Amino acid sequence: MSELSTTLAAVPQAWFATPIGAIGLTLAAYFLGVRLFKLMRHPSWCPPVIIAALLIAAVIALLPIGIDDYNRGAAWLMLLLGPATVALAVPLYQQLGQIRALWKPIVLTLPLSATLAACYAVLIAWLLGAPPEVLASLAPKSVTSPIALSLTQELGGSTALLMGALMTTGITAIFGVEWLSRWMRIRDPRLIGLALGINGHALGTVRAFEISHQAGAFASLGMSLTGAFTAIVLPLVWHLWA
Amino acid sequence: MSVLRGFLWLLVFLLLGQAIVLWLPIALPAGVIGMLLLTLWFCQRGGMNADVVAVSQPLIAMLALLIMPGVVEIFFVAGRFADQAGAILTALLLGTLASVASSLWLMRRCLPPEPPHE
What we know:
The structure holds two protein chains of two kinds. By secondary structure, chain A is mostly helical. Chain A has helices spanning 2-17, 19-39, 48-62, 67-78, 81-87, 89-94, 96-101, 103-127, 132-138, 145-155, 159-183, 189-211, 213-241. Chain A folds into two domains: 2-79, no CATH class; 87-241, no CATH class. The radius of gyration of chain A is 20 Å and the shape is globular. The mean pLDDT of chain A is 85. Chain B is extended and about 55 Å long. The mean pLDDT of chain B is 84. At the A-B interface, α2, α3, α4, α5 and α6 of A face α1, α2, α3, α4 and α5 of B.
């Protein structure tokens, strides 16, 4: 009997010894998360990503494995983020005509919007007495995660806190865009897409693709331009101040 | 086969991006450079490559899945910043709502209204 239980206890370790366990868990949690999201009637404050992440965290806490075992396997899945980012060229190219017609207002408004996205949060946190490490982790919060991670390392922030800030920002931006655009009577998918991409990075862009292809393309544009602009300007401004 | 050929194209542009990033003075991710290069290539040949289109649809649909593992980690490190939680949450929630409001307002003022035929 005890032999059986020791063998059973070894099963999770065997699963997570190769990346297969982590990849299987991530996929299963994703589909379960999407199903629960539909059952909950599409709550905008709780996207499927968060439900799925909670499920994965629960499984890791219950099984005799650690977050490091999971991360080692999931890193294989996250490798696809690179090619997936390159693939965003397709919606970008499809909307190029629209974007070319609007390049002037976009160039005028985007740098200001991207600057404000970083400034508001840093200013509020600074007023509330947050230390520099926290400020450096919050500043790149509206930028897509690969850029934000390299930025926060350069500024001296915490990677884990930044990931948390990215997720909170993404969800708040999705909720905020939905709520404020209804309140301001904005229905233009280009505008909603841009606002989602500038403020809500990849999470906002994923949401924009659920609205329409056009909103998604403008969100990818907003996300990449905000990323590029912040990557250039933020380190310069930060080192001038500090 | 088309999907695999398209995937190879994506990898080629990602690798090009990784090479170019080495020459740039700022830390931009290779994926973003690859995306811009691929868009330029489409412009130059005057249309999209069918293989790339075939692989891009499932990959873009997977984006949410790909960022999930990063989200999981938060639940395991949240305790470290518990004493700053109030300031952090206020800054993130209020800051993001304010920036969404100002970008929507700015864009509405500066973007011409959409042509009615769409």
